[in-house]
Amino acid sequence: MLAAVIRAPKKLDITEVPTPSAGPGEVLLKVGSNTVCGTDLRILRGEKTAGVRPGVVLGHEIAGTIAEVGAGVNGYHVGDSAVVSPTVTCGNCYYCLRDLEQFCMFPDIFGYNLDGGLAEYCLIPAHVVARHHLVVAKPDVPATALSLSEPLSCVLNGAENYKVKLGDTAVIIGAGPIGILHMIVCRLAGATQIIVSDPSEGRRATAASLGADITVDPLNEDLEAVVRGATDGLGADVAVICIGRSELLPQAIGLTRKGGHVCAFAGFPKGTTASIDPNAIHYNQISIVGSSNAKRRHAEEALRLIEKGLVPADIIVSHTFPLEKAVDAIEFSASGEGIKVAVTP
Ligand SMILES: [Zn+2]
Ligand SMILES: [Zn+2]
Questions:
Q1: Range 2-148+311-343: architecture per CATH
Q2: Please, what is the angle between helix 177-188 and helix 201-209, to 10°?
Q3: Average pLDDT in the 277-300 region?
Q4: Cα of 53 to ligand 2 centre, how many Å?
Q5: How far is the CA of 89 from the centre of ligand 2 (A)?
Q6: 95 CA to middle of ligand 2, Å?
Q7: Tell me: the pLDDT tens digits for 12-56?
Q8: Does domain 154-290 sit in CATH 3.90.1570.10?
């Protein structure tokens, strides 16, 4: 089969490898779609090497159809649609035992040390099957939509931390794929006013078409003034940073109301710092929360939202590439054009 194998930084081979088959306890997934993520780009560029095994098949946003079910496997059937919850936790470390499994100290991760979804087939190892990290989907949902369940699961983890609720004003800083998913989740959670800031005109237009109440060009408009104007001067209930620029942290604090939440959802370049007004924390009781990865139950919740048609996947997945063009797909995803890129083997 064809697969995108990462040999070393900047060396992603699109090459023939032996097609795996499902041994006892294992399941073989025929990949229908693998959406491309910023992490894939960082692995390709060599900016992320920790935990990445040279020779691994890249890709962790995986959806497909079950092609083979190994001996002794229950609950999975050939022909079922399924998605992978790609961070497979140990279930027994400090964090797993404290309901913080997203920080599992001994995870196996598809596209890092387990062969991922940028291939025609993806073998789901027995321990992954046993821990239910392959989640069966309802039939007739396009694989490109299903593969969004991984980024959406991370967004659901974030939303749980920033506690968006009915009637809120939410500010989403950055309207790439993650910002758009936050916007949709905030709306589903009952936010009645959503303000989206992004320097790209195309991305603002997409946000507006998907229901943003106000879009802001941060290069030519004063975001804080717009937010205050839309909230009787109070500020937003929640602000979510979806662009990895550290100066956005004090800015987000500045446009959030007393008792509100700021979420540093994006990853920031290693070593960057931000200075904030400590009195915004003290007097205004603003909570700054982070978010990283997702729990398995978020994958399940994300899948249910997608199956219900509550996520406009056909607009979010703006471009598809064949597997032969996986390198182009990853590079294109960094261009800022379009929203989300899928590779469809
Ligand atoms: Zn991802
Ligand atoms: Zn663990």
A1: Alpha-Beta Complex (3.90)
A2: 20
A3: 95
A4: 19
A5: 5
A6: 6
A7: 999 999 999 999 999 999 999 999 998 899 899 988 888 999 999
A8: no
